[in-house]
Design a protein that fits this description.
The complex is a heterodimer of chains A (about 250) and B (about 290). Chain A has helices at about 35-40, 45, 55-95, 105-130, 140-150, 150-165, 200-215; strands at about 95-100, 100-105, 175-180, 185-195, 220, 230, 235-245. Chain A is an alpha+beta fold. The N and C termini of chain A lie far apart (about 110 Å). Chain B has helices spanning about 5-10, 15-75, 80-90, 95-110, 150-160, 165-170, 170-185, 190-195, 200-205, 210-215, 225-235, 235-245, 245-255, and strands at about 115, 125, 130, 135-145, 265-270, 280-290.
Chain lengths: ~250, ~290
């Protein structure tokens, strides 16, 4: 310690801080502070050797962190190494699936399954070609086209079954006079008449149109013009011309 | 360097150590996440695949066997299917004599049953090229008066025109049902199925039972029989047997009119006739040839 000066002898002297082995700033010198020195001089005998509470707490935390940095590092290194080894060797070995005496991991199983599926598709196609050798030829396309065509008997059945649905006890009141259609475009023109039901002929006609519209084979119905006229021979009747498109 | 000196140096780099520790813990967390993802993949993908793979292997082995058998059987065919198509179904020229003879036979057969009358002359128009340029079509118009059942018989004859084998008369879905039933019951029965599908169609219409029995011998009394009966019932085979199983089929065979040239209805108009269920019909057909 230096001798007394005008300010109590502390001015100009440096104070050697206590030694903390793990404190990186152990060699850091305390700067000169005249006012502090004066204060220190005044309370020198009591306060100089004992640091403040805040400083003690900070130094404790720093000390703890410093002490545990190496163990923490070693632990994290060991943990990472074990997890790495486990991921690369142990886990694939334990989770490989044995199928037919061969162990495969997930990726290998996916590749193998895809390979089997591709081979199966190829062989199925080969077998089907053997069974039907003309597949893909113009002949086969014509055969397929014909199979999809609507036929006159089918259209007649559709109409008569619809008429029976609309008038179960009097289906002959819905008369079909003419059918014309082209199977290619699936469009059918029906000309007919609703007769023998008196003034309800238009109502029956509307029901006929609605029932045809809801038929599963019918895609579209173009509604006819609704009219009612009186004929001296057949009485009240509603002639119609309907256009249907089949599915 | 001794261990204490090494640790002393480490101590001097506390901040660096903490930084390295944080990085390692991050890597460890990533590896742990990888573990969890791997286990999840095994549960979600590998285990279901492990169940499917044996079935796929079994199916592959069965298909290999079937492909070999069908190839061997195909090699024993006398006449190639393409040749039959070129000679009968799609010849290079329309066979008008055969067409007129066909309508004559049809008129005689249906008139005898009071199902058809007033068959007009047949008019054949100029050739037109179809959408597929390898195919040409000749318009053929005919008028007649027919009862509803006669109409159905005539339609069936047009439907089977140009078809050569049982396989041609079945839809792709119907064939697939028979193939699936073969795989399920007896994969080696694919040879019997191939022979069944390749059988001449008129021969089947006239005598279906021996041909069905020949196929069923490969399977015994089983679910396959139920599938076969159901397919026959819902397909053109049933209607074809009704129309051509009797005298009409016999006449077509004896007059060498079978197999028929491919025809399709292009346009049709029908008016109600004088009697119920009778119709006056005007029909335009397409008679196909190959280019």
């Amino acid at each position: 310690m230096g001798g007394k000066g005008r300010n109590g002898g502390m001015e100009g002297t440096s104070h050697t801080p206590p030694y903390f082995p793990y404190f990186p700033y152990a060699s850091f010198a305390v700067p000169k502070a005249p006012i502090l020195c004066y204060t220190r001089e005044k309370h020198m005998t009591q306060t100089e050797a004992i640091p403040s509470g805040t400083e003690t707490q900070a130094q404790s935390v720093t000390a703890i962190l410093s002490r545990i940095s190496v163990p923490a590092f070693l632990f994290s290194l060991a943990l990472t190494a074990i997890l790495g080894v486990s991921r690369v060797t142990l886990l694939p070995m334990l989770t490989a699936v044995n199928v037919g005496g061969v162990s495969r991991d997930t990726e290998e199983l996916q590749i193998y399954s895809q390979k089997l599926t591709t081979e199966i598709e190829g062989l199925s196609s080969e077998r089907d070609q053997s069974l039907m050798p003309l597949q893909g030829t113009p002949y086969a396309k014509l055969v397929a086209l014909k199979a999809l065509d609507p036929t006159l008997p089918e259209v007649l059945s559709l109409f008569s079954s619809t008429a029976s649905t609309v008038l179960p006890d009097q289906s002959e009141a819905i008369v079909l006079l003419k059918i014309s259609f082209t199977p290619d475009d699936r469009s059918i023109v029906l000309k007919g008449d609703v007769r023998g039901v008196g003034p309800q002929s238009m109502t029956v006609l509307a029901q006929l149109v609605e029932t045809l519209r809801n038929h599963p084979r019918v895609a579209e119905v173009v509604s006819p013009a609704f009219s009612r006229s009186e004929d001296p021979e057949i009485g009240m009747h509603s002639p119609f011309t309907l256009t249907l498109t089949l599915r | 360097m001794t261990v204490p000196a090494f640790l002393h140096r480490l101590a001097a780099r506390s901040a660096t150590l903490w930084g390295a520790t944080a990085a390692l813990l991050l890597i460890a967390a990533t590896l742990l996440w990888g573990h969890a993802a791997h286990v999840r993949d095994v549960r979600a993908l590998a285990l279901p695949l492990a169940e499917q793979v044996p079935e796929l292997e079994r199916r592959l082995a069965m298909l290999r066997e079937q492909a070999e058998l069908t190839e061997l059987n195909a090699a024993t065919r006398i006449q190639s299917p393409e040749e039959r198509v070129h000679v009968y179904a799609l010849p290079s020229e329309p066979d008008l004599d055969k067409l007129i003879a066909l309508f004559d036979v049809l008129r005689d057969a249906l008139s005898a049953e009071h199902l058809l009358s007033n068959l007009s002359s047949i008019v054949v128009g100029e050739q037109k090229i179809a959408e597929d340029e390898r195919i040409a079509a000749y318009p053929v118009t005919v008028e007649f008066t027919a009862q509803r059942q006669g109409l159905q018989s005539l339609q069936t004859l047009i439907d089977v025109s140009g078809l050569l084998t049982i396989g041609d008369a079945l839809s792709p879905d119907e064939r697939a049902r028979l193939i699936d039933a073969t795989e399920a019951e007896n994969p080696a029965g694919i040879v019997a199925l191939e022979q069944f599908l390749g059988t001449d169609l008129l021969q089947y219409f006239r005598e279906p039972r021996p041909i069905d029995d020949q196929l069923l011998k490969a399977f015994g009394v089983s679910a396959f029989e139920a599938t076969l009966r159901d397919v026959i019932r819902s397909s053109l085979l049933s209607e074809g047997h009704r129309v051509l199983g009797g005298s009409l089929g016999k006449t077509l065979s004896e007059a060498r009119l079978w197999p028929l040239q491919m025809m399709r209805v292009e346009r049709i108009e029908a008016r109600s006739g004088d009697a119920p269920e009778w119709y006056r019909v005007w029909m335009e057909l397409e008679l196909f040839t190959r280019e």
